[in-house]
Design a protein that fits this description.
457 residues; alpha/beta; Rossmann fold; Helicase, Ruva Protein, domain 3; five-stranded parallel β-sheet; 47% helix; 13% strand
């Protein structure tokens, strides 16, 4: 049962060091034992262990400083702290900063072995790098997330439809992408569509495509997202927002593995694995007649639940430091980390917006920080003010423009002359704006030839 990487044991008491080494070796572990934090850092520079067990009280650099050093260099490496009675508060504080566990001396040998086994089950990134690539975007050391990923890994191998539940901002699309990467479809496309973000009139054509002449002025055929995802995975986010008529069509695709483009006479076959996600209560929606029961059972073959950030508080410091690193690179700023009281604020805060909100807070404090170490005062300020998604000016402008054009076209039923007049632009310029934003005025026309009229009674 030995691991490819040894355990690193750090204690300045030679008798205890010998005893623990014997006990761990008897359980099949390889052990490297050293008597100081300085020796441990030298050892870490030579090769990465699977897990570190260190006494808190050490001569010279203490175990907590060693833990901080390990955390900054190797954030996924589990550290178990051994504490004498007087250092318990320090160890408790270190676990909020991301230490895996602490044990108070004298401790039961089997308890240590249990903690080591748990820690190793989480430290697999250090052991099986190549096997971890699929989940690299989901940064966590929480037991709950670890169990969820083990489950996700198992279902990825099948072709079963998966429904991911979780609050907004918990990372449902990241999990869907990870499942795709771990599946046999990994080489084929992963296509994501947010059913709540696309106007109802556009959604059918987005999903299923349309043929030339499907409605007045349809000059060309266009494939939908189902065809784009053929052979791969289609991720339907906010599936609870899908309108009833489209639920019927989606069910047909899932049952028959064929789809009919808008305006087409012949169905075409399609091979797609569906992963859907929702933060809504679908059971309540079914009870109200807003969501089809038969579709629900088709989509919910396997249900995975993403915990909220508050249910995985031990990940907050890890995520904050990771986001700090990526944001510092983005802004080309030299940022070394958070002051301890700033990290504590983040760890204890209320996170209704989950990981996405944490990212926004970190991005905001990185943009505003004038010192390499981010102070608590900046974090306090960012937590008090509701965070904007910090869009670049160009992104914000583009988003406004697209939403504005959609509202105009809805208002004028797709009449370009009227829409251009309201926008105070000439037709040619208005058409160019529509083209740039990938909008087709024909999609907004009501009446007989509407692309969205139900074709099958």
């Amino acid at each position: 049962m030995g691991h490819s990487s040894p355990l690193l044991l750090v204690d300045d008491d030679p008798d205890l060091l010998r005893l623990l080494t014997l006990r761990l070796k008897a359980s099949g572990h390889r052990v490297v034992a050293v008597e100081s934090a300085e020796a441990a850092l030298a050892q870490l520079a030579i090769s990465l262990p699977a897990l570190v067990i260190t006494d808190v009280r050490l001569p010279g650099m203490d175990g907590l400083a060693l833990f901080d050093e390990i955390r900054s260099r190797h954030p996924t490496l589990p550290v178990i702290l051994l504490t004498a009675h007087g250092t318990i508060p320090d160890a408790v504080e270190a676990t909020t900063r991301g230490a895996f566990a602490y044990l108070t001396k004298p401790f039961d040998g089997t308890l240590l072995l249990d903690k080591v086994a748990q820690g190793l089950s989480l430290s697999s990134p250090a052991l099986e790098m190549e096997d971890q690539a699929w989940r690299s975007e989901l940064i966590s050391r929480s037991q709950r997330v670890s169990e969820l990923l083990a489950e996700a890994r198992l279902v990825a191998a099948s072709d079963a439809s998966i429904l991911i539940r979780g609050d907004s901002g918990t990372g449902k699309e990241l999990l869907a992408r990870a499942i795709h990467r771990a599946s046999q479809r990994a080489e084929k496309p992963f296509v994501a569509v947010n059913c709540g973000a696309i106007p109802e009139q556009l959604l059918e054509s987005e999903l299923f495509g349309h043929v030339k002449g499907a409605f007045t002025g349809a000059m060309d055929s266009r494939e939908g997202l189902f065809q784009a995802a053929d052979g791969g995975t289609l991720f339907l986010d906010e599936i609870g927002d899908m309108p009833m008529p489209l639920q019927v069509k989606l069910l047909r695709v899932l049952q028959e593995k064929t789809l009919r483009q808008v305006g087409a006479n012949q169905p075409s076959t399609v091979d797609v694995r569906i992963i859907s996600a929702t933060h809504r209560d679908l059971e309540a929606a079914m009870a109200q007649g807003l969501f089809r029961e038969d579709l629900y059972y088709r989509l919910n073959v396997v249900a995975l639940h993403l915990p909220s950030l508050e249910e995985r508080r031990e990940d907050i410091a890890l995520l904050a430091n990771h986001f700090l690193k990526t944001t510092a690179a983005k802004y080309a700023k030299r940022l070394t980390g958070f002051a301890p009281d700033a990290l504590e604020l983040l760890s204890l805060a209320h996170w209704p917006g989950n990981v996405r909100q944490l990212y926004n807070v970190v991005e905001q404090v990185c943009a505003l920080s004038t010192a390499p170490l981010i102070p608590a005062s900046l974090v306090q300020r960012a937590l008090r003010t509701p965070t904007l998604d910090l869009l670049r000016y160009a992104e914000a402008k583009q988003k406004f423009e697209r939403d504005y054009l959609i509202r105009l076209l809805k208002l004028t039923d797709g009449n370009v002359s009227d829409a251009a007049r309201l926008a105070d632009r000439n037709r040619t310029e208005f058409y160019r704006l529509l083209q740039k934003n990938g909008l087709d005025p024909r999609m907004f026309r009501g009446g007989e030839e509407s692309v969205f009229a139900e074709r099958q009674a």
